[in-house]
Amino acid sequence: MLKNQLRLENDIKVLEMGKMKDMIFGTKILVVIILLHFISTAASTSSINTKRALKNHSRVSVSYPVQLHNYDDHVVVDNGIFSITIASPEGIVTRINYNGIDNILNDRNENSDRGYWDVNWSDPSDLKDGLLDKLTGEHLDVIVNNENQVELSFKRPWTFAQEKNQVSLNIDKRFVVLRGLSGFYSYGIFERLRGWPDVDIYQGRIVFKLQEKLFRYMAVSDERQQLMPTFEDREKGKPLDFPEAVLLTHPSNSRLQHEVDDKYQYSTENKDNRVHGWICSDPPVGFWMITPSNEFRNGGPVKQDLTSHAGPVTLSMFFSTHYAGPDLGMKFRDGEPWEKVFGPVFIYLNSVSTEESPRSLWDDAKEEMLVQTNSWPYHFPNSSDYPRANQRGLVTGQLVVRDVGSAFANSAFVGLAPPGALGSWQEESKGYQFWTQTDEKGYFEIKNVRPGYYHLYAWVPGYIGEYMYQSIIYVLEGRENRMGLLVHKPPRNGPTVWEIGVPDRTAAEFYVPPPNPTLKNQLYASQRTDSFRQYGLWDRYTDLYPDKDLVYTVGVSNYERDWFFAHVNRHVGNKTYVSTTWTVLFDLEDVITGNYTIQLALASATAAELQIRINGVGDASLVFTTKLIGKDNAIARHGIHGLYWLYSINVVHSYLRAGENALYLKQTRGSYPFSGVMYDYIRLERPPAY
Fold it and tell me: Could you say which of 192, 283, 286, 677 has the lowest number of CB atoms within 10 Å?
């Protein structure tokens, strides 16, 4: 045991430093040669294999046929690389045997608490808190069973007799094991029939809980990976302002002493949430969640969600209200029918020899993610609800921006989502979304689009607002929709007088303070780009402005240094918070008759009301209020943005004067520590010159 602990410590150091040389080149070449030989002699082998430069030494058994063993209360699928045990007919993964590890999953947990699907839902006519449904199957269908593929379907039909106990969905959970692949796929088909009762559904996911004694090192990205606390470490720790956040006071590893652990510190935007998971050092084994497409996720490309966290737990979040609020939940009314396919996602297992660096497991997982992404849409799912590549469409075009001048929409986000209003995609969960980014000249290709009706939406970093193509687009199977030249005209009523920030839908350019020294997560101590993920930054405003609020002088102040990243409340002691008012001072040489405009873009809002006054603090000086807005909770959950809000505010010239002016921004809801807004961008415009 001591030897293993020392080895773990040594491997952790190597992982964190990232300096271990690649020692496995020869082994890689040998495995690739062996694999290609088997592929060339087996025409029916998955085409995914032909794209992969396999590095996993255990995959020399690629020729082993996939076998299904059916028992009274469970099934076992074995492809010679690993085996998976699934409770039958429940469809819950209870065991994963791989590379000498009898069970990668936490076998101290009950069978129902190891590897499972679940949803959070509620009955809108009932005031009870939300319910958790683990979508336990009632019937097993063997969809495919041959030497190259096993696909299993665990179904649960819904009946009115279950109205108060189960979410009103027909459930079809699928598991797929292919020959020669070190991992398995899972996808689900959710269906509501017309006339079924009203229901609210807030979250859907897959959960895997791993062996705690084996998996201690977590990786979410190249920069975000570290040794993690155990469940017991968290239990012994000091709870902070909400249950997810714990100060580690008696960790099993002294290196974690006085660290803060919170699962929301490891959240990631959908566009970047492609691979994450865990590393075991002895034996060197990796467990990874790979998501090859975002088409089934909700909220668009920059919606944030959970990844992996202490437990050890690995998640595949299909939809949730995180960083958005309950408006992102799916609300079904008046017997609305619905169907959606979630996944497939790939649960990837990899290993190296004991002489090699565990670091290479992360590098290999990233390569596997690219293989899986480039193979999308998959050819193997045996469901008519999942269209193959030749059953999908293509949408192409070019986007330009006409603001003060004309420019190509470089790196713009362009996407297809169900028809709706401008910006409705960021609160869309029921349908599919397909997003891409433009090249330097604004050209885009949205590939592999499911046939259907869509609106085309776009937004361009560096410009406020967004674009929506007014006509509905009908994507046909195997056809290309050529959109031609599209012109985005961002909101603007006149020339810029002054501006604060960069219009990119985040508050990342503003001042993010260092955390309280007693509430650090060392992972982010030296990271500028992710420093906002530290715990308790909302109270740092009080440390910086204990008596007077922020004052920003246009032309003198620097928003990177002088504009706090979140407009929050001041802590005045005894867990009491009061509202705050920020001041923007600016000079005008003269005042032109007509309407000035304040372009106000918010990157986040939580239980907030922002009031704007000019040259006075009384009601007579009030020019605008947002009223009560926002439930994205991004401040508490260490996000640098939530949902996007844009207001174009007319200001009659009589509010202004030649010389010095003061604009007051007051967040009026002061009793809650997490009430507040994050600004994306503020601009004052002069009246237009006709």
Answer: 283
Q: What is the pTM of this model?
A: 0.91
Average pLDDT value for the chain: 92
Which amino acid does the sequence have at 16? E
Residues 216, 278, 316, 65: is their CA dihedral positive or negative? negative
Q: What is the dihedral of CA 585, 587, 591, 592, to 10 degrees?
A: -90
Q: CA 604 to CA 594: how far, in whole Å?
A: 31
Q: Name the architecture of domain 389-488.
A: Sandwich (2.60)
**Would you list the DSSP string of 391-431?**
G-EEEEEEEEEESSSEEE-TT-EEEEESS-STTGGGG--SS
Burial class (CB in 10 A: 0-12, 13-18, 19+), 77: buried
54 pLDDT more than 70: no
Q: Which of 354, 255, 680 is closest to 505 using CA atoms?
A: 680
Q: What is the pLDDT of residues 474-488, one digit of tens each?
A: 999 999 999 999 999
Q: Is the confidence at residue 49, as pLDDT, over 60?
A: no
- The length of the chain, given as a count of residues: 690
User: How far apart are alpha carbons 659 and 586 in whole angstroms?
Assistant: 8
Backbone angles phi, psi at 126, to 5 degrees: -115, 130
125-134, 398-407, 412-421, 490-499: least confidently modelled range: 125-134
Give tens-digit pLDDT for 305-327. 999 999 999 999 999 999 999 99
Measured between alpha carbons, how far is residue 119 from residues 131, 204, 336, 338, 544 in Å? 8, 4, 19, 16, 42
Single out the residue of 434, 411, 415 nearest to residue 423, CA to CA. Answer: 415
For the chain, residues classed under CATH 2.60.40.1120 are: 389-488
Judged against a pLDDT cut of 60, whether residue 110 lies above it is answered with yes
Please give the class, per CATH, of domain 67-221+272-375.
mainly beta
